[in-house]
Amino acid sequence: MNRKTFLCLLTTTLLLVSIVVSNMMSLGYAQIWVPAAPHSRLTSLEFWMDNQTGFMTVTIMFPCLGWKIEDWGTLSVNGSDFSADAEIWYWTGPSGQMIWYAVHDYNLGQLAEGVYSFTFKSFGYIVRSMFFEVGFPADINDDGRVEMRDIGTAARAFGTNNPHPDWNPDADIYRDGTVDMIDIGFTAKHYGEMVP
C-alpha cells in the first residue's frame, strides 16, 4: 500500500470514528468510568498453602480494555469467613477489544485445621465465593480416618459452644463458635475417608 492510499484510509477511519463518537454524545451516552463487577463466570478463586500460610488467588478475565482495578481491597476476617471488596471500574465509552487477565493473591495468614469461606466483591456486590478446607477437619479424633467415632464425637457436642462442658472445638468444623448440624453433616459426608 502506498503512502497516499494509507493516508486516505487513515483519514476516512478517523472521520468515521469522529462521527460515531459525535452521535453517541448527541444521544446522551456518557463516556465515564462507572463502578462495576465482573461476571462470576469470568472470575476464579484458587486456595493454596505455603508453609502453613493460606493464600487465595483471584483471577479475573476481562473481555476488553475498558476495565480497571483501582484497588484490590483490604482482606476482612469474621471468624472463618474471609472477604475482600475491590474497586473495579468500567469505561462506558469505546474501548479496545482485547482479552486480558488480572491476578491478585490475598494472604490469609496461619490457618488452623477447619473449613473456611472466601468472598470476593466489587463495591459490595458479591462476584464469587467459595468454601475451602485446611487439613482434614472431619477426622475429629485424629486417627487417620473418618469413622463413627468422629460422627459420635460431633453429635455429643451438638448445640454446644464455649464454655459448655461438652464443648469440643475440634467438632466445630466451620469455626463459627457452635457445633451444629452443618458440622455433623460435614463429618458424615466424609465418612469412610482416610487422611490423604
List strands and helices in order, with pairings.
Layout: H1 3-26, E1 33-35, E2 43-50, E3 53-62, E4 67-71, E5 75-78, E6 81-91, E7 100-110, E8 114-122, E9 125-134, H2 148-156, H3 181-189
Helix pairs in contact: 2-3
Task: Outline the structure in words.
Helices cover 21% and strands 36% of the residues. By secondary structure, it is of the alpha+beta class. It has three domains: 27 residues; 101 residues, no CATH class; 61 residues, Immunoglobulin-like (Sandwich). Strands 1, 4, 5, 6, 8 and 9 form a six-stranded mixed sheet that branches. A three-stranded antiparallel sheet has the order 2-3-7, with no helix packed on it. Helix 2 packs antiparallel against helix 3.
Oligomeric state of the chains in view: single chain
Q: How helix-rich are the residues, as a percent range? A: 10-25%
Taking pLDDT < 50 over at least 5 consecutive residues as the criterion, the unreliable ranges are none
Derived from helix and strand composition plus strand pairing, the structural class reads alpha+beta
Total domain count: 3
Largest sheet: 6 strands, mixed
Number of strands: 9
- The span between the termini is 65 Å
- How many distinct helices? 3
Question: H/E element string?
Answer: HEEEEEEEEEHH
- Global Rg: 26 Å
> Shape from CA axes?
elongated
β-strand percent reads 35-45%
